[in-house]
């Protein structure tokens, strides 16, 4: 006799989570994060993976949660905006250096794109701790900002790179 299959799990922001069976067949990762796990960082923007508002890190790689089936992340590690402080060792207090840099540079207006911009910046800086402006522009080119704070956002990413290097020194 075979043992019953265990429900699929995913690690979200360092915590193991059982994926709800009721939504696995058709739900996107974004749906599960927002509706089942009550995480508000990733936003629903276009629903097509084109605007970047829903960006999360899956095993450290930036990914569009609105187009990833929830079942596709079973056994993997997902980091949302809420999990960034722990990712850099600040656990539940403080901010990730990218979050702090966005505040310092006043890189938010309406804030809707902010999740995606921050998550893409984290992914970039983990791969390339010293990007130039052109690298930042390339990385963020697929993320839409309707308010026009692109200049401040680019400055924030470059500042975050400095903050992260200083923290490691």
From TrEMBL:
Record keyword Flavoprotein present: no
Keywords of the record: 2Fe-2S, Iron, Iron-sulfur, Metal-binding, Oxidoreductase
Pfam families xref list: Fer2, Fer2_2
Domain of life: Bacteria
InterPro entries noted in UniProt: 2Fe-2S-bd, 2Fe-2S-bd_dom_sf, 2Fe-2S_ferredoxin-like_sf, 2Fe-2S_ferredoxin-type, 2Fe2S_fd_BS, Beta-grasp_dom_sf, Diverse_Oxidoreductases
Domain (2Fe-2S ferredoxin-type) ranges: 6-84
Name the UniProt record assigns to this protein: (2Fe-2S)-binding protein
């Amino acid at each position: 006799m075979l043992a019953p299959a265990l429900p699929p799990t995913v690690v979200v922001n360092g915590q193991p989570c059982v994926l709800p069976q009721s939504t696995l067949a058709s739900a996107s990762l974004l749906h599960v994060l927002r509706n089942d796990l009550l995480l508000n960082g990733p936003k629903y923007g276009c629903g097509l993976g084109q605007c970047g508002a829903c960006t999360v890190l899956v095993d450290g790689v930036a990914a569009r949660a609105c187009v990833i089936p929830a079942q596709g992340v079973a056994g993997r590690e997902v980091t949302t905006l809420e999990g960034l402080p722990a990712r850099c060792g600040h656990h539940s207090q403080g901010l990730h250096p990218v979050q702090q840099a966005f505040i310092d540079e006043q890189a938010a207006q309406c804030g809707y794109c902010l999740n995606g911009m921050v998550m893409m910046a984290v992914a970039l800086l983990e791969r390339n701790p010293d990007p130039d402006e052109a690298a930042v522009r390339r990385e963020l080119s697929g993320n839409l900002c309707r308010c026009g704070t692109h200049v401040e956002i680019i400055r924030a990413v470059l500042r975050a790179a400095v903050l992260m290097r200083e923290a490691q020194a």
